[in-house]
Amino acid sequence: MKKILALLLAALMIVGMAACAPADDPETTGPNNGTSGADNDTWKGTIKVWTPTEDQAADNNWLVAMQERFEEAHPNYEITWDNGTMSEADSVTSVGGDVTAAADVYMFANDQLGKLIDAGGLSRLGGTFLEQVESDNSEFMVSTVTHTDGGVYGFPVSNNTWFLYYDKSVYSEEDVKSLETLLEKGKVVFPFEESWNNGCIFLGMGATTFGPAGVDAAAGIDLGEHKYDAARKMLQIAAHPNCVEGDQGVGQLISGEVDASFSGNWDAAAAREALGDDLGVAQLPTFTVDGEVYTMTAMSGAKCVGVNPNAGNVEGKQKVATEFAAFLASPEAQLARYEMRGVIPASTTLLENEKIQNDEVAVAEINTMANCAIVQSSLSEMNNWWTPMETFGKGIISGEVNEDNVEDQVDQLEELLNKTSEL
Questions:
Q1: Residue 1 has pLDDT above 90, yes or no
Q2: C-alpha of 135 from chain center
Q3: 22: in domain
Q4: 321: left (phi > 0), else alpha (psi -120 to 50), else beta?
């Protein structure tokens, strides 16, 4: 396992695109987020912080624990913490609605990065903060917080992807490498109606979203030269007698209705409790089309910590807020979050941690990120993806998309995916 993780570490370091601030902009735009300041700096004031509710559980409060550690590391700061809760998925609504009243430090999903920047709610990182992002993360993860201007606007703290959960009493480790074998030996729920997931066949066969890094709006969404074959493969999967209709998640696996399903690490605790030693996890499987082997590919990203550039006119507040955001994304804080909440870290420096290496859910997630994932674009044009893909998947289930009209349906789908009026 250690050798495997070492190889993955090497792979992660070269995946994706290099992302950095322009050479002539070593610090940041807006308030100074480029330097961490001297150890003897003094500061007194209030820092408003928003994180998910789970990070502030009464009996297991990760946020407060990290604030206490930060205070210990900065005894010259006298900070009053103003903590609030917000789901990463709600950051555009909660922060973008009124950036001047929003938190100074908050967590967000990287697919919302573009909208947050447009709303003036994210600071561009520079100096030692930019160095931290680039040194602690794979190039893939750096690209998740890189905007079209080349700037980096957040600190990744965890992966955001999905992979395979399965019943070990039904499948071997070799069986789960192939979707065809999964369907042959047991029942599988495929997320046809989940638009974050159901593009995995198109993506596995070469579809792209706004170029390889997801930041080229002019490139649009291209379903690729194999788009018709990909759609026919989806029809084939849906028609298989062992393919069960359902949503992303482990509910049907837990109930025994299926033997394999797809979800992320957020379902790990429930799956472990239900299946015990029979629980297996793995990266996304391969599939075969006309004798060629492809791999299901996940649209993936990161959960991140950002800094609001509207921290007010209190002298030094922006620097302290950015220092705290950087601390929340540090390997120390990410490891603590993993130990307290089971959230798998993004930091490459933790991939060789023994606890991570011995966690099969973490290994499955890391394998998926390294081997079969693309960066989920943060461009506003990405909004075109969700409804058309959901409709297409539902059409396959209902029979509206079928062998007689599949090519026309795919052409219509690609047109809708690139229709700017749908934004």
A1: no
A2: 19
A3: no
A4: alpha
* Residues 145 and 66 grouped into a single domain: yes
**Based on the domain organization, do 126 and 234 belong to the same domain?**
no
Q: What's the pTM? A: 0.84
Sign of the alpha-carbon dihedral angle for 176, 358, 60, 76: negative
Answer yes or no: is 15 within a domain. no
- Number of structural domains the chain divides into: 2
**Euclidean distance between CA atoms 63 and 216, whole angstroms:** 36
Structure confidence at residue 420 (pLDDT): 67
Distances (CA, A) of 346 to 126, 130, 364, 401: 20, 16, 13, 39
Point out the least confidently predicted range of 60-69, 159-168, 246-255: 246-255
113 and 235 part of one domain: no
Closest by CA position to 156, among listed 115, 125, 200 = 125
pLDDT tens, residue by residue, 166-207: 999 999 999 999 999 999 999 999 999 999 999 999 999 999
User: Is residue 17 one of the residues assigned to a domain?
Assistant: no
Residue numbers of the domain that contains 137: 31-160+300-373
Same domain, 174 and 254: yes
Q: Which letter does DSSP use for residue 215 in this model?
A: -
Q: Give yes or no: residues 396 and 279 share one domain.
A: yes
User: Of 234, 253, 242, 244, which Cα lies nearest the Cα of 294?
Assistant: 234
Rg (CA), the chain: 22
- Whether 201 maps to a domain, the answer reads yes
Amino acid at site 51: T
Please tell me whether residues 101 and 195 are part of one structural domain: no
Burial degree of 17 (CB within 10 A; 0-12, 13-18, 19+): middle
Pairing outcome for strands 105-109 and 298-307 = antiparallel
| Tens digits of residue pLDDT in 367-411 | 999 999 999 998 889 989 999 999 999 999 999 999 999 999 999
